[in-house]
Amino acid sequence: MILLLTADTAEQLLPTIVSRCEALRLRPLPVGKVEAYLLGRGVEAGQASLLAHLSGGRPGYALRLLEDEAGLAGRVERLNELQTLLGAARLEKFAYAEKLVKDKDVFRDVLLVWLSYWRDVFIQASGAGAPLANIDRSEEIGLLAGRLGQAEARRVLDLHEKALVRLERNVNPRLLVENLLLDWPK
Questions:
Q1: How many other CB atoms are there within 10 angstroms of residue 172's CB atom?
Q2: Contacts 24+ apart (CB under 8 A), 170-173
Q3: What is the spatial distance between Cα 184 and Cα 157, in angstroms, rounded to a whole number?
Q4: What is the pLDDT of residues 104-145, one digit of tens each?
Q5: What residues contact residue 85 under an 8 Å CB cut-off, 6+ apart?
Q6: Which residue from 97, 150, 161, 173 lies 20 to 30 Å from 167 (Cα-Cα)?
């Protein structure tokens, strides 16, 4: 009998279980294969490409995204807010922060969307060949990456990664988002 046990990290499991397991790392598929899979299921070409990129090569996640129209609309809204906040005055950023922290789950989701965006900016700034997640924003990502450069894009990406960790450690969410927004490039 073979049992397949999945976990994000081995640290989540008891040591007695880990000692009896063989680690098998499951890698995502190439984005093109996920896109072809979605096209085969009748998904429109533009949407299939976007979902394949957003899913990072995970077909199951791409299908969940396909069914979550509200989630995709929320993503677009969050990215629009990010663009607005980049040029916003300090007072506007503080008002947004106050509104955002009312629901910790929503705040976490916003951070994840922003993290994917800044990851794309870093990829573009560094000239890496990795596919962008937010291909529908590739033009603005390219402009921002050209303006910021690799070092600044990496700094902002690091800020978002640390913000997620701090949120899980119950840091004051309002102070967290205010500092994050103030550290964004102008």
A1: 12
A2: 173/101, 173/104, 173/107
A3: 10
A4: 899 999 999 999 999 999 999 999 889 999 999 999 999 999
A5: 92, 93, 96, 181, 184
A6: 150
How many residues are listed for the chain in this entry?
186
6-39 burial code (b ≥16 CB/10 A, e <16): eeeeeeeeeeeeeeeeeeeeeeebebeebbebbe
Q: How far apart are CA 50 and CA 31, in angstroms?
A: 10
Q: Which one-letter amino acid corresponds to residue 92? A: E
Which residue pairs, CB below 8 angstroms and at least 24 apart, start in 161-168? 161/115, 163/111, 164/108, 164/111, 164/112, 164/115, 167/104, 167/107, 167/108, 167/111
**175 CB-side CA count, 13 A:** 4
What does DSSP assign to residue 30? P
Domain ranges of the chain: 69-186
Q: Rounded CA gap, 180 and 140, in Å?
A: 20
**pLDDT band at residue 10, thresholds of 50, 70 and 90?**
confident
Q: Which residues of 109-146 are buried (b: 16+ CB within 10 A; e: fewer)?
A: ebbebbbbbbbbbbbbbeeeeeebbbbbbeebbeebbe
pTM as predicted: 0.85
Q: In CATH, what is the architecture of 69-186?
A: Up-down Bundle (1.20)
Are 53 and 131 in contact, with CB atoms under 8 Å apart? yes
